[in-house]
Amino acid sequence: MSELKYPIYLDYAATTPVDPRVAEEMMGCLTMDGNFGNAASRSHTFGWNAEAAIDKARGHVADLLNADPREIIWTSGATESDNLAIKGTAHFNRKKGKHIITSKTEHKAVLDSCRQLEREGFEVSYLTPEDSGLLDLEKLKAEIRDDTILVSIMHVNNEVGVIQDIEAIGEITRERGVLFHCDAAQSAGKVPIDLEKLKVDLMSFSAHKIYGPKGIGALYVRRKPRVRLEAQMHGGGHERGMRSGTLATHQIVGMGAAFRIAKEEMVEENARLMKLRNRLWNGLKDIEEVYLNGDLEQRVPGNMNISFNFVEGESLIMALKDMAVSSGSACTSASLEPSYVLRALGREDELAHSSIRFSLGRFTTTENVDFVVKTVRGKVDKLRALSPLWDMYKEGIDLSTVEWAAH
Amino acid sequence: MAYSVKVLDHYENPRNVGTFDKDDLSIGTGMVGAPACGDVMKLQIKVSDNGVIEDAKFKTYGCGSAIASSSLLTEWVKGKTLEEATQIKNSEIAEELALPPVKIHCSVLAEDAIKAAIADYQKKSEA
After folding, report:
1. B106 is annotated as an active-site residue
2. Which terminus of chain B is more solvent-facing, meaning fewer CB atoms within 10 Å of its CB: N or C?
3. Residues of A that are catalytic
4. In B, which residues are within 8 Å of A379 by CB distance?
5. Cβ distance of B59 and A387 shorter than 8 Å
6. Confidence class of residue A95 from pLDDT cuts 50, 70 and 90?
7. ipTM of the complex
8. What is the 3-state secondary structure (H, E, C) of chain A?
């Protein structure tokens, strides 16, 4: 048995460590004897070498997605890609229409970009997913209007890991002549993406979710049929004028390496993670009053979002100090607001307050999972022994009928 | 967020966890908060004939600071008269536990809980 290091990292959906193979390649692009040049320098080998490395990386990213390298625009990350895709296409197409459709469980980078467009006079419809976390596509169809210019739906949800049917969404939007943007920050390298087949017009990516570095991402912008957008960042006209700024060779090379490794190892890694995830869920699901949030089948292998009823999430996280997990809820307690994603899935506030997201990844081991199961079971018992709600549940009191002194 | 040593101590080793028979006339029960808000505190006091709190027990659903606030409170009220226990301020709890601003509401809840427990005891003894 390998030696366990604590805390055990189980927050791969938040970010991942850089794969040592990726770090190695990045380190070759920083110092005087490395590939440090400015890819826009046309007059010497330093520039040419940097450009060659970036082209290679662009090829690796395009390869994972079955896209043309010329469709890949480097950005600082998925947040910037979302902003560029949504605001950029809305601004470019504002004469065609001002209606945008998205969903309530999107990442804040999408939701807040839409809010900004609302302030500028655009109209946004926010779809509510089914309790499984998946969208009812008939409801999406019904929302499309003659002045709808963009639909933005994520591929895999960051909190609950459910996979939307973007193939079907693409058929709907293409038929209606509406652009389709998809945030794929949580899906690249975990779910097969074939942009020859999918009718997705814009897709956002991030490197740090799949063992690449933070601070680098990409936006896929389809060439056929051609998608046009207004730049948000102006300057030297890099990236075909869509995103100016000197290209960060080391970051880009890192993202390219991460995407190349993902393509090579995805099938094997998914099978391994699926086993670990099932081991985790099988170890926990027989605890009384435990609920899985989001669909189990239509879900990425690494994600388990579980509510432990009558135990408050933040105190459970505190008890699980030997592992790094996150509360599905944005439990700052200042706002007292549980996760907006879980609420959109129809979870009662109590269950939303009691959720923990375990996200597994490349360096998670069977021993890690067994430790998690054992620890969680013990801590849930301990906290329930402290919980007045657990006592009431055990006495057969229906908590929804109690009049609480809300504060 | 980093918790203070005192919060961690009460959280790891909560004092006076448990339940008294709420129908007993010497017992006052206060339950405050709501599951939807992420905090429910139940505080019970056992009061002697001469109005002194002999014992206290709590159960809390909530974050570590909420658990620590109620645990600390059970220690503080023991041996106090009802009048003295009413005087406990949330600011004293917050200060003792070094609660950060976002967790002040936990100490407010604890103050509400002891007031509710005393009110329940008094209501029962008047009946």
Report:
1. yes
2. C
3. 331
4. none
5. yes
6. very high
7. 0.94
8. CCCCCCCEECECCCCCCCCHHHHHHHHCCCCCCCCCCCCCCCCCHHHHHHHHHHHHHHHHHHHHHCCCHHHEEEECCHHHHHHHHHHHHHHHCCCCCCEEEEECCCCHHHHHHHHHHHHCCCEEEEECCCCCCCCCHHHHHHHCCCCEEEEECCCECCCCCEECCHHHHHHHHHHHCCEEEEECCCCCCCCCCCCCCCCCCEEEEECHHHCCCCCCEEEEECCCCCCCCCCCCCCCCCHHHCCCCCCCHHHHHHHHHHHHHHHHHHHHHHHHHHHHHHHHHHHHCCCCCEEECCCCCCECCCEEEEEECCCCHHHHHHHCCCEECEECCCCCCCCCCCCHHHHHCCCCHHHHHCEEEEECCCCCCHHHHHHHHHHHHHHHHHHHHCCHHHHHHHCCCCHHHCCCECC
